[in-house]
Specification:
Helix content: 40-55%
Shape: extended
Number of strands: 20
Oligomer: single chain
Radius of gyration: 30 Å
Strand content: 15-25%
CATH class of the largest domain: Alpha Beta
Largest sheet: 8 strands, mixed
CATH superfamily of the largest domain: Periplasmic binding protein-like II
């Protein structure tokens, strides 16, 4: 699997009720510095993971440097030069500071962050987001998708995921075969069979479906599942009403031919070109006829899907309601280009054509207020206070398959070699920093109370024993 580190958040979290939804999103969109914003105090959990939290700390500590580098790239810097400098900066390689000084700087900022968070977590953050225990979580993309799905299913809440505009961490999960001189050839072959099994697109697709994480595998099965989930054209081909599904058929009454529209055929240019020759119908399966056997079956009004037209008259639903992506139509703003990932992994697909998805919810664009007015969202540059289109906040589709532009502003954290001990020492100190003053006071009160209670028990016991001794002495006399 592969993915990004980002910020999973609920812009309508109860504790943020006095904040505008766009304000919360803007705080999370531009950089990781939103995690340090005190208006979210006590509602944030971060990863109990050295590299991920260190990455967020690095991007926050040197935010201005990352901003200046982004500005140089936007102004025309060669991408290779930009990425080399970005990756070095992300990994603490600087001309003006030693790595030890960098670690110390980041440690100082992480201690400030610690005062602003609810706590650290490894695997509970996604469920805490679903239940509403917290409003913001430093999350891996797969956990974010899981939480988004669960929050919708269980409470109708919409969560969002940000891969901050100034950059983030790109991660990979891998299977590894350790060297082992004693391993038999049979065991080696079994291990390779397992790796091949996990890498088969059909199995990788099922894994993605179950976990929410994104396989590094491309292939037909993966792209078809992704399109079924996220491409708005799917909803046009497979209309669901209640528990029923309605299939669209292209019918040529002149030639008495019909074909079920399906992926990937639906994306092909010839389908668009054939609009004049074919009429498309929504066919309603029934117990008597699950699949049509002839053109007349499809045209039979007993199997037609009806809709209300502008005059509130019930008419058969046909091709006029079906979204066709054509060069003459203005759908460019809906296009999501994933050719960087899927190109050359597919059979019978056309590169740079069938790897284009169409989505009206890939990136967050705004929300509707209580009066039904659409409140548009633009990301505000906190340094120059200028506005531009959102490129960093979206929901499931964006989270599972970020754009190439997003990937280009992420880097892999390297192994630090001999400097690993510096980072490990910093991390242990961060996790064991002294308790905050309020917690320390409570802790002291508890200790005093316990000691007092024990002292009271001992004193009571001594008094009782003394009374008993006096009573026995009286009886003896």
């Amino acid at each position: 699997m592969w993915g990004t580190l980002g910020i999973l958040f609920n812009p309508e979290y109860e504790a943020y009720s006095k904040l505008d939804m766009n304000e919360v999103i803007n705080d999370m969109a531009f950089s990781y510095s939103g995690l340090w914003n005190t208006k979210y105090n006590g509602t944030i959990s971060i990863k109990n993971s050295l590299r991920d939290t260190f990455a967020a700390g690095m991007l926050h500590t040197y935010e201005k440097d990352f901003y200046d580098l982004k500005g140089a790239y936007d102004a025309g810097m060669d991408f290779d030069e930009f990425y080399t400098r970005f990756s070095d900066l992300f990994n603490g390689v600087r001309d003006d500071k030693t790595f030890a000084q960098v670690v110390n700087d980041v440690h100082g900022e992480l201690k400030v962050l610690k005062e602003n968070i609810f706590g650290l977590e490894v695997d509970s953050g996604k469920q805490d987001m679903v239940t509403g225990k917290i409003g913001i979580n430093l999350a891996w993309s797969g956990d974010a998708v899981y939480a988004m799905d669960q929050a919708e299913d269980e409470g109708g809440r919409e969560l969002y995921f940000s891969v901050p505009e100034l950059g983030s961490n790109l991660w990979f999960d891998n299977w590894v075969m350790p060297k082992n001189a004693n391993r038999s050839e049979e065991r080696r072959e079994l291990a390779l069979m397992f790796l091949n099994f996990m890498s088969d697109p059909v199995n990788a697709m099922q894994n993605m479906d179950y976990t929410g994480y994104t396989p590094f595998i491309g292939g037909d099965s993966i792209i078809e599942l992704t399109r079924d989930w996220f491409d708005i054209r799917t909803d046009e081909i497979y209309e669901e009403v209640g528990d029923e599904s309605y299939q669209v058929y292209a019918v040529s009454e002149e030639n008495n031919e019909f074909v079920a529209l399906d992926y990937p055929d639906f994306m092909k240019d010839e389908h668009v070109a054939a609009q004049d020759d074919y009429k498309l119908y929504y066919f309603v399966p029934t117990e008597e006829k699950e699949e049509p056997e002839s053109v007349s079956d499809i045209a039979d009004l007993n199997h037609a899907l009806f809709i209300l037209n502008d005059e509130s008259v019930e008419v058969q639903k046909t091709y006029g309601d079906l979204l066709i992506v054509d060069s003459d139509e203005n759908y460019d703003e809906l296009a999501v280009d994933l050719s960087y990932f899927f190109n050359d992994t597919l059979d019978d697909y056309e590169n740079d054509v069938d790897t284009i998805f169409y989505s009206d919810s890939y990136l967050y664009s705004g929300y509707y207020d209580e009066d039904g007015n659409f409140i548009e969202y633009k990301t505000t540059d906190p340094f120059e206070q200028s506005e531009h289109d959102n490129i960093s906040v979206g929901r499931q589709f964006f989270t599972q398959y970020p754009s190439e532009e997003t990937i280009n502003r992420c880097a892999v954290m390297r192994d630090f070699g001999e400097n690993n001990k510096l980072v490990m020492k910093m991390w242990e100190e961060f996790k064991s920093d002294p308790l905050p003053v309020p917690a320390l006071i409570i802790f002291i009160i508890i200790i005093v109370a316990v000691v007092g209670f024990i002292a009271l028990l001992i004193a009571s016991k001594l008094v009782v024993n003394n009374i008993r001794k006096k009573r026995k002495a009286k009886e003896a006399a």
